[in-house]
Each structure stands twice: as C-alpha cells, then as structure tokens.
Write a structure and sequence with these properties.
With 332 residues, this protein is mainly α. Helix content is 78%, strand content 0%. The chain has a domain of 185 residues: MetI-like fold. Helix 1 packs antiparallel against helix 14 and helix 8 packs across helix 9. The model has no long low-confidence stretch (mean pLDDT 80).
Length: 332
C-alpha cells in the first residue's frame, strides 16, 4: 500500500473516530445532571423568562434536531455559541490549543530526554546500582499522582526555595515567534526564557509518569535486543560497544517507544486537565473545567472534539514514522 492510500485510509478511520466521540459527548450532555438554564438564571426567575431563554439557546428543540444541527456545523468549523458568553466556541477553543500543545510537547521532551538514556543505562548495567536506581525511579514515577507532585513542587521549589514561579503563562511560543518576526530579538529571547521558566514545573509534573513509562519500556526493549543474534555477531566482528548499543540495538528498540510516545502525546493533550488546574495554565484543561462548572456544554463539546482530532492526527503521524524507523514495516 502506498503512503497516499495509507493516509486516506487512516483519515477516513479518523473521521469515524471523531464522529463517535461527537456522538458520545453529545449524548452525555442529556444524561448528565444539571440544567444550563439554572446556571444562567436566578432561581426565582419568571417561568416565561426562563422558557424564553431556553428557546433562544435552542435547548427546547428535539434531541435529533440539536444533534444534526451540531454535526452539520463541525465540517465548516462551527461548534456553536457558548451558553454563558454567547461567543463562538471555535474561537475560544482554538485560542487555548497553543498553551496545551506547548505543555504536552514540553512534557514529552522532558520525558524522552531523561527516559531513553536512563533506560539504556539500566539495561546495559543490569543488576548494578544504576539499574536498581532506574527501576526505583520508574516505580516512584508511575505511582506518584501528578496533582500531588505538582503541589509538592510548588511548595518546595516555588514557595520555599523561590526557584520557579507558581503559575501562569507570561508569553506563549506564538508570541515569541511574533517578536522574532517583528525584529525584536532581545524581547524574543527574554520571552523565551520567561516561557521556559514558567513551563518547567508543569512539564515535569505532567511528564513524570511518562518518563517512568518510557524508561521501563526502553530497558525491557534493550534487554531483549541485546540478547539477539545480530548483536552477538556485531560484537564478534569487533564493532565498538557504543556503536552496537546505540546504532543497532537502540534503533530496533525505538519502534515500541515511538508507539508509546505518540499515544502518550495524544493522552497528554487531553490529560493535562489536572496539571493545568494546579498551575493555572490557560489551556484546554482549564477551559474544560470551567465549562463543566458553568454547564457550558457547547464549549465542553468543542474542547473534547479538538482533543479527539489531535489524538487521531498524532496516531496517524506515528504510524507514518514507522516506515522511516524500520523499513520492514509496510503501510497496511
């Protein structure tokens, strides 16, 4: 199968996945407790005014009519209007995507930079102190709740030691690029440093579990590859041990690692809710929590749809990378 046919096939599958997410999320709106009108209106409002507001919001229409109107607007980027602010949902959701992507990618970079070398060291020094230390780190990383870790990092590193800020996002990478385009190199460098300073604690918090997972996966994969015949043959030919480990064994270990990295990147995009809430990071997670509290279902639906689309795109990208990491993998 050619790359073009593979991409078309996966795109069609992705459309079905997104449609399923849209249907489930839309259905949850009607079985969840709480009425948006109760949030928008005081308890003692006149019943006629209440019915008028419900009619203006379109909440009195039959379920199937609301569903088809909502689905019909998605292909053209119309996700409806916020029940609270009466502003387009698409603009509100897309404005939060850069902050969430920055946090997810930063957490992934932290995890990969730490985990792969740690996993290689653990595998090549099996049953040594370095191996035991890496195993203990993985166990602690997987077992530690990220919300608790985030609070502890804030208390110790931000409050007591005053090494990092406690919250907020002073400037995004889009703002940094805008300064570079405008020729303000000095301000762009300062903005980039401020961004890195503020995102360090959230990225470490979000990426700790991911780091532990990749460490264990790299270790088990390296142990499996180092025991295979081609590694013994490479050593028998007199190849340097470093070349054998990193050029051959590690490369063959990267297939499952890439799979997990891709899947976890999509998970991080949708799973940063707690981390964003702890650090007041203005991304999709914060928007989702605020939408749930306000019963603002159009904004919540739009946020979850964007998360689903991001997850699908990441998975397609990961599957495409397989062929470049291992030519034996075909597009099927």
């Amino acid at each position: 199968m050619s790359l073009a046919r593979f991409l078309v096939k996966r795109a069609l599958q992705g459309v079905l996945v997104v449609w399923g997410v849209v249907t489930v999320v839309f259905g949850l709106r009607f079985i969840s407790p709480g009425d948006p009108a109760n949030v928008l209106l005081p308890p003692d409002v006149d019943p006629q005014v209440r019915q008028q507001v419900i009619a203006e919001l379109g909440l009195n229409k039959p379920l199937h009519v609301q569903y088809f109107e909502f689905v019909a607007g998605i292909p053209v980027g119309d996700l409806g209007l916020s029940l609270v602010t009466r502003t387009p949902v698409t603009g509100r959701v897309l404005s939060k995507v850069p902050a969430t992507l920055e946090l997810a990618i930063a957490a992934t970079v932290v995890a990969v930079v730490i985990a792969i070398p740690l996993g290689v060291v653990s595998a090549t020094r099996r049953h040594e102190p370095a191996d035991y230390g890496a195993t203990l780190f993985s166990l602690l990383g997987i077992s530690t709740p990220n919300f608790w870790l985030g609070v502890m990092l804030i208390i110790v590193l931000a409050v007591q030691l005053d090494l990092f800020p406690t919250s907020q996002r002073p400037i995004g990478l889009d703002g940094v690029f805008g300064l570079l385009v405008a020729g303000q190199v000095g301000n762009a460098v300062d903005g980039l440093l401020a961004w890195a300073w503020h995102i360090t604690l959230p990225a470490v918090t979000l990426g700790t579990y991911f780091t532990a997972l990749i460490t264990r996966l790299t270790r088990s994969g390296m142990l499996d590859e180092l025991g295979k015949t081609y590694v013994r043959a490479a050593r028998a030919k007199g190849l340097p041990e470093t070349l054998t480990r990193y050029r051959h064994a590690l490369r063959n270990t990267l297939i499952p690692v890439i799979t997990v990295v891709g899947l976890q990147l999509g998970t991080l995009i949708g799973g940063a809710v707690i981390t964003e809430a702890v650090f007041a990071w203005p991304g999709l997670g914060t928007l989702i929590i605020n939408s749930i509290n306000a019963r603002d279902w159009p904004v919540l639906q739009g946020s979850l749809i964007i998360v689903a689309v991001g997850f699908v795109l990441v998975n397609i990208l990961v599957d495409t990378l397989y062929a470049y990491v291992n030519p034996q993998v075909a597009f099927d």
